[in-house]
Design a protein that fits this description.
342 residues; 2 domains; 7-stranded parallel sheet; 7-stranded mixed sheet; Rossmann fold; homotetramer; 11 helices; globular; Dihydrodipicolinate Reductase, domain 2; alpha/beta
């Protein structure tokens, strides 16, 4: 049985990544693509790497025939997303890749996004899309909110440790390195090749990055108390991938065993042998997440390093993993491709 | 039905690419991997990006149990390949990725490779592996010789034109740009990141590159006369991909139509609308080949631009395409993944 | 004695490169910087790599006090440049880095730039800025027109050969590879890191690049007849540098000797031993130009490869070299820094 | 007055960088270059970017005429350096770029380098080469030990803070990102372009990097007690530059003011306005070091970010700065070139 899929906002990188993944999915069919500023264009005009595919022409959202759509991937900009999703017919399942439904608390949303949420009921209904930790809820959800790509990386490193109570909750530093596609296809000066190649710098330094809203919400809920981490993202001269170096106070052996136990049954999360460290290129263009643990020379401290591809496991791959669950399909369908190396 | 596959020389980039492709192939199973200098290691030690796969440990070639192997991919160094292939049992089908069986003529082999061929009978038996042009022979072959990656790019640009007699055979210039993985994982100074990044230079300039042996053999055979092209490869600061800019004397409209006709039924070769040009990133990590044709401002001259991924369509993907044919499988099995972009 | 310098359009890459070069120049002092859209900002806000320098704040052009300026570098967009230069007081010497005064013929200007020139008298007065070939005229000029960066590379490869009559004027192909800074700091999709890194493609294929106007003008003048070359530029995943691979019909030995003779006294143009080829990184961030000559395997054909840094020798370094001459200074002042490698 | 300079180990990247810098130095002249494995070659064969310079041929060390040499830059591998320096005549001043004389304590040397020091007297005599903090000693030294490039970055971030007692000495994390030229021109698999481009990973994770020996020595001496920091270096896909993100417990305003005071008179160390962060490309190919301070959202914590070019300020530029002092020259001679951007 084939499910009909629409991708709203298909002209961005996460939209193109969804098309790439669905292209070889055994039971999904793309029947509508929207991209307001590119309406009327073919997908191969916007992304010539997809020219071998037979895809619908890009349309405006209002021209999508939702009646025959089973599931929508919503890859629209923040704020636009909530407006559009409010109008979708009730039979349509939705995986939202924007930030609009990640935070459950209206005050937290206002704090991090600087405006009131226009669909607070949907905000309450939405299930947080970190599949490995919300699997059952996702199976039954109508609306799933894809996580921030950085937020995903940090949570794979910290959720099991906080849940197990094996680290000091007041001494957590996430030093994160993120490739440029996480910023999308936007025309910004710092995203130019001439600016970024041979460069590297921090951004949103000091705790102002919006993904901290997700960390605060999730970690505090797991811990049953307020948890505030330090988080410094850096922009790196690469196109895909996130590597998070997480400094914690805790015993490396216990931490490693906690991961081994937590992720034993997970198809996409791989815990490396203790002492080994991952590299972003080892998961590139795949849905895998690699986790390494190393003891620091200072007793009682450990370094956890997590890597994933921001466009795949951090965004579109995660979205497809969730869609598979929502449609009653095999969770791994269309997602077992090996990383591309070199 | 599952076919058992061995990859000899699995520790190089083409070996790793074969594993990547076969990992999601519906009817092939890797039952042996050899890598002499890495014998005893797991594939994930050599290539951690493959650590999610359940693969056989690397062995020495002599420890491979060929009895239950249906097809061997031979990704060994030049010269080693012919020695090994001579010893393989007759029931085993072979796709060779080395240069050893590309040239049918013993004198030509000696000229370009500086030594006598040690298996001239096999050299005669081998079928040249450019699938689109040797499809029927490949279906019935026991030994198929994968083409040079640059040689593949040049031939996609020129074979139909030479066959149709629409260009001047004495005025052909192939200016080619090749990514670094074509040189393999060898430890050479000019392949270091610090040397190549932000760099670009020609090599084997003036007509000394060995892939010219393939051009001479194939083009002369098609034309029924000696054809000698000019060919200048350049090393570019990228990991995957080849782009060949081919200068010909001929009418651009006729040339474009010749391509449209020649490749109409091909699943992997895509002719762009006249006037559009391809980019290496539009085929990255895929088995597709894009071809563009532009008329020059000088009457009677045209530019043909071809791009493909040297590790996929130029090598391991081509090898798998051939293996599919040799095993009676769907030619495109395991090869329809979309390019990875960005 | 110190000369007072203004840079108009200082917020672009060529402007920043001029500041870099002048920063250690023994007898030039930057007394005004304009950048209309950034007027009011400091240069270190626009280019933090210059924050160690004590520079004037960016102003609007109309706020520059030209009375005390000896020489202006005009790094404004095409068309804007001619409008501004028309208004400059007569005592000011001008090196223009735009395309506005490169073509001497009003019809040629209209053909390549699609509009009439607004200052045809200045167009006639302007001296073409390829220092090595217009040195005496430049010394006495009030207005010098910097060449196109690609045009410079092609001319270093071809002017001496055309002048000496040692190549076939009807069979010249320039296949050029250009780094991205040549396109400036403009916000265009194809200049994004995510688009260009790991990519390479041709542009203005077929003879539509504006620098052909310069080739046509200069080569035809030298030859005393119409000369039309083929010219295909490619955008490469690097920030600085141009490498031109030039295919000619001629004897490689004679060609090499022609270069050795032509450039014997040149401080910045270096002819490599015959058979050696240059690399763009060997001249990066310097004012040097390297030229290599290789005989093709086909008798009577040769490949000439030229490399230079588009921002230095191809633009701002060339401009400073010309300014030195116009001000009666040592031609090489401030320009002898070695290339940056790796 | 011109001083005669020898560079031992000139075939490595730090050797080439010394040549680049000295090429435009007003009062130094390179009179000998050694490179044992490349003895007999010209420098332009080893580094074609230097082919415009008139340099001595590479020789073996034993063929260097030290009698007329005023100062030696010793860019030899670790351990080789101490053996060679022991044999140099007493009139020769020495700037050593290896790790051999960075640690004053013989036990510490053994611990970090796994062998006994062969010249413990010289080890005692050597002055640690972080110019800004050992300026007076360096002026009078015969032997100066260049610091580790990472060690330099970490110390610019922490020495003033430890000296002023404004941070918690037990909670210091240095997360460092280092470009690949820091690893030299060695033929190692992980330094290949195909491996590193589009990649990023940690190395020596957990406190095993040798530069920790320098941190321990220097920070403990300043504090008057044992100080142990956490230090995780990462290899980034870039050629030049180090960026260290340093997490400290302390007040950001006080920390920023401490830097402003400490570096007020320094020509090469620039403290950014509070809240701004540096980028590695803003100091590329220059001797500058940029420092930024940002308050974390958690009260009492701050992030200090430091960037410098590992080959210049982190190694050869620092060495030249020290040589200038040792020879009684202006400290900044030959070092005021602006960074290269883009």
């Amino acid at each position: 049985m084939t499910h009909n899929i629409a991708i709203l906002g298909a002209s961005g990188y996460t939209g193109a990544e969804l098309v790439r993944l669905i292209a070889t999915h055994p039971s999904l069919k793309i029947t509508a693509l929207s991209g307001n500023s590119k309406a009327g264009m073919t997908m191969s005009q916007v992304y010539p790497h997809l020219r071998h595919l037979d895809l619908p022409v890009l349309t405006k959202i209002e021209d999508v025939a939702f009646a025959n759509i089973d599931l929508v991937f919503c890859a629209l900009p923040h704020a636009t997303s909530q407006a559009v999703i409010s109008t979708l017919p009730p039979h349509v399942k939705i995986v939202d890749l924007s930030a609009d439904f990640r935070l459950r608390d209206t005050a937290a949303y206002r704090k991090w996004y600087g405006q009131d949420h226009s669909a607070p009921d949907l905000q309450k209904e939405a299930v947080y899309g970190l599949t490995e930790f919300y699997r059952d809820d996702i199976r039954n959800a109508r609306l799933v909110a894809g996580t921030g790509c950085n937020a995903a990386a940090g949570q794979f490193a910290l959720r099991p440790l906080i849940a197990a109570g094996v680290i000091d909750l007041d001494r957590i530093v996430i030093d994160l390195k993120a490739a440029v596609s996480g910023a999308g296809r936007a025309l910004k000066e710092n995203l130019l090749h001439a600016e970024l190649s041979e460069n590297l710098h921090g951004y949103a330094v000091g705790g102002t990055h919006r993904h901290l809203g997700e960390f605060d919400q999730e970690f505090s809920q797991i811990a049953g108390r307020d948890v505030r981490v330090q988080f410094t993202p850096h922009l790196i001269p690469a196109n895909r991938g996130i590597l998070a170096t997480v400094y914690v106070d805790g015993d490396a052996d216990i931490i490693h065993q906690t991961f081994v136990d937590a992720y034993a049954a997970e198809p996409f999360v791989i815990v490396l042998p203790k002492g080994e460290v991952p590299a972003i290129k080892h998961v590139r263009a795949s849905n895998f997440c690699h986790i390494g643990v190393v003891a620091d020379r200072i007793d009682g401290r450990a370094i956890v390093i997590v890597t994933l591809d921001n466009l795949t496991k951090g965004s579109s791959g995660q979205a497809l993993q969730n869609a598979n669950l929502m449609l009653g399909l095999e969770e791994t369908a269309g997602l077992m491709m090996a990383p591309v190396y070199p």
